[in-house]
Every structure is written in C-alpha cells, then in structure tokens.
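Weekly sync, protein design subgroup
Attendees: M.S., D.O., the rotation student, P.L. (late)

Item 1: inverse folding check
M.S. brought a backbone from last month's batch and wanted to see whether the design step gives back something sensible before we order anything. D.O. pointed out we never logged the input encoding, so this time it goes straight into the notes. Structure tokens as presented (255 positions):
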C-alpha cells in the first residue's frame, strides 16, 4: 500500500489521516509532500472551518520518520529530506484554519513535530510522546523549536537531550496536550473541539492564528504592533459587527 494522507470530511470539518508505512505509520517525504498539499487545499476551501489531524489505523498517530529511508542519506539528501518535513509542519502551522491533533499510540520524532505545529492537541489514554532522535544519532530540529515555548525550557531540554517518552497524563500535566480522553472517545473528543469553530468567522480565526505566530517569531514590541494592525484590519470585514451584535442579541452569528 502506498503511503499518503487520507482526506475525510464531515460538514465544515476536514479530517486528514497520516497513512504511513506499517501500522506504526512511519513517515517519509511522500507523506510530507501530500500533507502539505492537503493542508493548502483545505486552507483555500472557504466552506471549511477546522481540520483534525490523526493517524490512520488503531495502533499509532505515528512512530515518526522511517529510518529505512534515512539511514543512508548524505548531507544534501538529508537536507532535502528534513526540508520536506519542515514544509509540511510549516503548512500546518500557517494554515488559516484551526488544526486539532487527535493523538493515539506513539507520537514520536517528526510526527511529534507535526503535532506541535497543531493548534490544539487531544490525546488518547494510550498516547506517548517523544523526540528520540539523539538515540539514533541525530539532533531534533525544525519544529522541535516549538517545544520550549509549549512546555518550558527545562522540560524541553530534558526531552530533547534524553530522548525519553512521556505518557498522556504526564503530557497533560506539562501542558503538552490540552485534553486526555479514553481511546474509544478520541474521535468524538476531537470532533467536539473542532465543532467549537463552526460559528466563528473564518477571517478572524486566521487573523488570531497569525497573531499567535507573530508572538512566537517577533520581538515583543514588533509582535504588539503587528497585533494592533491586524486587529484594526478585522474591521474591514463584517465579522466583528455581526459577532458582537449576535452576542448582544443572544443569538448565533450569521456568517
């Protein structure tokens, strides 16, 4: 079976399934390229309001990058390989739609970086998380940089330097995931979270994501200035007036 990304849709919510090699969903450039394309297509679909990212099958979100594809790389091919993962993760991070990760089983290495790029992470009770690259002769790079602002520098250093894994409950206590659900209820929990965005303006959700990215990537004053300008531009759209009017009139907004 060819590895790839499966797309399912339920009303205004798209579900993207990482369908990698073996039941551990091992990932390679083909999956990364298709994920980037799927994310871009969803981001351009005006009828969508949210995306759920999950692993295909019952065993794993993904145990990470396929070492069979990596072990014989040379510097140039290694750079090309890791850039394909970065492009996919950056696509998730920059997507104008909220992306909810629904994580069951192992979520390791490059797959963990994809999860870190998501806006909200919901874990099944059997989920585990780690960046074990140091144990196979590599440093963790690219979107692993999102780990320190997510869990704090001390905990991030521990995970990066030891390559240890943490279970779902520890991930919740660290702030690495937002919710833990029984495995049988994971899909429903992710859908419930995604449905919270259905009554919100698409433009406003995209603007909020851009502001959060600015906070991560800019200095404090530059990020504040970017936020102010983006806030003001929202009033070029009908969303603020309609949303606030609907709130005052105690009715759902009509977008």
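Designed sequence read out in the meeting:
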């Amino acid at each position: 079976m060819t590895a790839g990304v499966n797309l399912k849709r339920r009303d205004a919510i798209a579900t993207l399934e990482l369908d990698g090699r073996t039941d551990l969903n091992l990932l390679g450039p083909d999956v990364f390229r298709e994920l980037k394309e799927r994310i871009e297509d969803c981001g351009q679909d005006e009828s969508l309001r949210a995306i759920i990212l999950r692993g295909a099958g019952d065993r794993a979100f993904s145990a990470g990058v396929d070492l069979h594809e990596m072990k014989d790389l040379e510097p140039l091919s290694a750079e090309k390989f890791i850039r394909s993962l970065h492009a996919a993760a950056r696509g998730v991070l920059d997507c104008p739609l909220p992306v909810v990760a629904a994580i069951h089983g192992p979520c390791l290495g490059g797959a963990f970086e994809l999860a870190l790029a998501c806006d909200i992470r919901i874990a099944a009770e059997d989920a585990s998380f780690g960046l074990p690259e140091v144990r196979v002769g590599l440093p963790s790079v690219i979107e692993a940089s999102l780990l320190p602002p997510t869990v704090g520098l001390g905990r991030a250093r521990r995970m990066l330097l030891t390559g240890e894994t943490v279970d779902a409950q520890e991930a919740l206590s660290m702030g690495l995931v937002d919710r833990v659900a029984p495995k049988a209820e994971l899909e429903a929990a992710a859908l419930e979270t995604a449905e919270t965005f259905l009554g919100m303006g698409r433009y406003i959700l995209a603007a909020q994501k851009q502001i959060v990215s600015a906070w991560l990537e800019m200095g404090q004053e530059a990020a504040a200035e970017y936020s102010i300008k983006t806030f003001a531009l929202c009033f070029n759209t009908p969303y603020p007036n309609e949303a606030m009017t609907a709130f005052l009139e105690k009715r759902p907004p009509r977008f």
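Discussion: DSSP finds eleven helices and nine strands in the chain. The two ends are 42 Å apart (CA to CA).
Action: P.L. to compare against the previous round before Friday.
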